[in-house]
């Protein structure tokens, strides 16, 4: 977890994420999960935005997280020994709050495993880990403006619409 993970205790991720509701188990992703994460990200981009990502660039981007833990970390959800969902946590320093926001990104759950608690299990694990960290001041995520299903799912998890809008300049 690097220096962004749990700080108030010696608990590991397994202590936060042993939520075996509906046989769903959340764990920190490992290098051996890269192919699955790349596949899930490819499917998510196509499903939510109708875009095709460069496989090599995506693989390099996912691999970079494993090579440098200051970029973030992935969590994966397993059901019956198969990965069925994922999320990426990245970091944003807030000088206003003297703390770190965890950005929840690259969220994906296989279609056959939706609406059984996979997303909720991932989110609850993230929330527990962040709550136990002395330097995390909040959770944030962005969602495509037309993805009404995702917006409703996040609202059902207790997240609120923010008054901020995201602007970008791709280079």
Structural commentary:
It contains five helices and five strands; from the N terminus they run αβααβββαβα. The chain has 171 residues and is α+β, with helices and mostly antiparallel strands. The protein has one domain: Gcn5-related N-acetyltransferase (GNAT) (Aminopeptidase), CATH 3.40.630. Strands 1-2-3-4-5 form a five-stranded mixed sheet. A hairpin with a 2-residue loop joins strand 2 and strand 3. The radius of gyration is 16 Å and the shape is globular. It starts with 12 loop residues before the first helix and ends in a 15-residue tail after the last helix. The N terminus is likely disordered.
Biggest sheet: strand arrangement: 1-2-3-4-5
SSE-based structural type: alpha+beta
Q: How many helices does DSSP assign?
A: 5
Q: Architecture, CATH level 2?
A: 3-Layer(aba) Sandwich
CA-CA gap between termini: 29 Å
Main sheet?
Answer: 5 strands, mixed
What's the CATH H-level superfamily name?
Answer: Gcn5-related N-acetyltransferase (GNAT)
How many distinct folded domains? 1
Average pLDDT level: 89
Text of the CATH class: Alpha Beta
How many β-strand stretches?
A: 5
* N-to-C order of helices and strands: HEHHEEEHEH
Low-confidence stretches: 1-11
CATH topology: Aminopeptidase
Strand composition percent:
15-25%
Backbone shape = globular
Radius of gyration: 16 Å
* Fraction of helical residues: 25-40%
